[in-house]
Design a protein that fits this description.
mainly alpha, 4 strands, about 70% helix, disordered N terminus, disordered C terminus
């Protein structure tokens, strides 16, 4: 391993990039990031239809959890992609590595759109889909680090937060683009046809986006920092190994994992994916309405990431993250309570007027079971599928006790019913008590309020995410930067964030509380806040400083 004497990003041997070159760098890197995250997010945007096509199950909750499990698998392979492509990026160059990642992502996404349904080829269908998700995860593991470093190493130090913030905004742009494409397809394809085969078109569209992205990125030249290192003979021998042996790097990786990525990724997925699932699921809002709400809120929030990135160039990278984490702990539950009250006020009113209490033997619910072991478990499954909150009454009888459900003042029991009859009976009892299971279309004033609350979630995400590319680039030495920042970023994003929809969905399903899944986000952010306060250096932005001179992270205050 070679010692870093001076940070080469300040003294590239080639000319400083012109304003035109910087614009091309930002545009090409951001566009590629938009397209690549579009490829990844279209799976989550079409989760309900994917579940029916590839993960059919009588238990609707199980079906959705299987979809989110497939979503999580892709994220689970992101760290492996970070190791592989981080190694290549530090050895072969930034440019060509993320050309490979965007190609792999585009081909894998289009492949999902070509897989026959489970009805046609059985279990082979979900197996192939999972394989494509793995390839997507590998590709994404190399994409963010490559794009973020490429822009950071072209940017002048005083504008690094501003320029790299477009990469973070592009992640939201991928989510927004996925919704735009779905809305456009729904507009031109009849609903029945879209549900049958039209949902595949957004996946196949990734081939066109891939062509545009490659065309733009092939115009780019290699990063001046990488060229300077190569000419100076300061390349790392084994970037992966040196990421863990370079002086001080273990601490930096720990801080990057929990104090940076853990915070940003859980808030991001809570704001966008949990927000979308919450409206579609427990709140029963009309799917088309949800798509428009998420489109508007997501589109408006993109500019906030750029503002935060620019702000961080003046106040440093630590302050926005600390402020965003503290505000998230204070506002996360109130924001979602407000969204619920505006999206489906009747549900909250019905739950207050006619609370549901279930009693019976072996009254436990396993969301991953195709069929529940007890009558009481099946009752809980019915209520969960309907999005109705419930409480479980204590019972002394372990076996043999009749299952009853009390809805307001009326108590109902059932036994011997088949699944279809029982589900119909439960829904009928609830409707008699005032519960409304029709798709909700909130009035305009309520929709405006929902958009504003979701925009508040977007602001929390922007505070904790907008300056991160610049921060991570400044935390690690240039010769192992691609590997060192990609590994903790994608472990955090892959596991802490990628598994969030699955874990939060499981918590909601087992508690009967539509808001209980937020505790997962709250806990990760609370721990991350402590790590960030301790580990991220405060003060104005500074270049990476060799550990022999001054540690790049210190317990300074924001």
């Amino acid at each position: 391993m070679s010692e870093t004497v001076a940070a080469p990003e300040l003294q590239p041997t080639h000319h400083e990039p012109s304003a035109k070159e910087i614009r091309l760098v930002i545009a090409a890197s951001s566009a590629g990031t938009v397209f690549e995250w579009y490829d990844f997010f279209i799976y989550g945007t079409l989760a309900a239809l994917i579940g029916k096509a590839f993960f059919p199950a009588d238990n609707e909750t199980l079906q959705l959890l299987l979809v989110w499990a497939g979503f999580a698998v892709g994220f689970g392979f992101r760290p492996l992609g970070a190791i592989l492509f981080g190694y290549l990026g530090d050895k072969l160059g930034r440019k060509y590595t993320f050309l490979v990642t965007v190609t792999l992502m585009g081909v894998a996404t289009a492949g999902v759109g070509l897989v026959p349904s489970a009805e046609t080829i059985g279990l082979l269908a979900p197996a192939i889909v999972i394989l494509f998700r793995i390839l997507q995860g590998l590709a994404l593991g190399g994409e963010y680090g490559g794009a973020a470093i490429y822009v950071a190493e072209h940017a002048p130090p005083e504008k690094r937060g501003f320029y790299t913030s477009f990469i973070q905004a592009s992640v939201v742009g991928g989510f927004v683009l996925s919704i735009i494409v779905v809305i456009a397809c729904r507009a031109f394809i009849p609903e029945d046809a879209f549900n049958a085969w039209g949902w595949r078109i957004p996946f196949l569209l990734s081939l066109i986006l891939l062509g545009i992205s490659l065309w733009m990125r092939l115009k780019l030249s290699e990063s001046p920092v990488f060229r300077a290192m190569k000419e100076a003979g300061e390349m790392a021998g084994n970037p992966f190994v040196e990421s863990f042996t370079y002086p001080g790097n273990k601490k930096r990786i720990f801080v990057a994992l929990f104090g940076v990525t853990g915070i940003l990724t859980t808030i991001w997925y809570t704001a966008f994916f949990s927000g979308m699932s919450f409206l579609r699921g427990p709140m029963r809002v009309d799917p088309a309405t949800v798509e428009w709400v998420m489109l508007i809120a997501g589109g408006l929030s993109m500019g906030l990431y750029v503002l935060v990135g620019r702000w961080s160039d003046r106040v440093g990278r630590k302050k926005p993250i600390i402020v965003g984490a503290v505000l998230s702990l204070l506002l996360l539950f109130p924001i979602f309570w407000g969204i619920g009250a505006l999206a489906n006020p009747g549900l909250a009113a019905s739950a207050r007027a006619a609370p549901v209490v279930v009693q019976g033997a072996n009254c436990t619910y396993d969301p991953f079971a195709e069929r529940q072991a007890s009558q009481c478990g099946r009752m809980l499954g019915d209520l969960t599928g309907l999005g109705v909150p419930y409480a479980i009454a204590e019972t002394r009888a372990a076996t043999g006790a009749a299952t009853t459900v009390q809805i307001g003042e009326r108590r109902h029991s059932y036994g011997g019913m088949d699944d279809a009859s029982r589900k119909a009976a439960v829904q009928s009892w609830l409707e008699d008590a005032g519960y409304d299971f029709a798709p909700q279309k909130p009035p305009l004033a309520n929709l405006v309020g929902i958009v504003l609350l979701l925009l508040g979630c977007g602001a929390l995400s922007a505070l904790t995410y907008g300056s991160v590319a610049a921060l991570l680039a400044e935390m690690f030495p240039p010769q192992i930067r691609y590997s060192s920042m990609s590994i903790p970023y994608h472990i955090g994003a892959g596991y802490l964030g990628g598994f969030l929809p699955l874990i939060a969905g499981y918590i909601v399903a087992t508690t009967g509380n539509a808001y209980a899944g937020l505790w997962y986000t709250w806990a990760i952010v609370a721990f991350g806040l402590l790590v960030a306060w301790w580990g991220i250096r405060g003060g104005p932005p500074r270049e990476f400083e060799d550990s022999g001179k001054a540690p790049p992270v210190s317990p300074a205050s924001p």
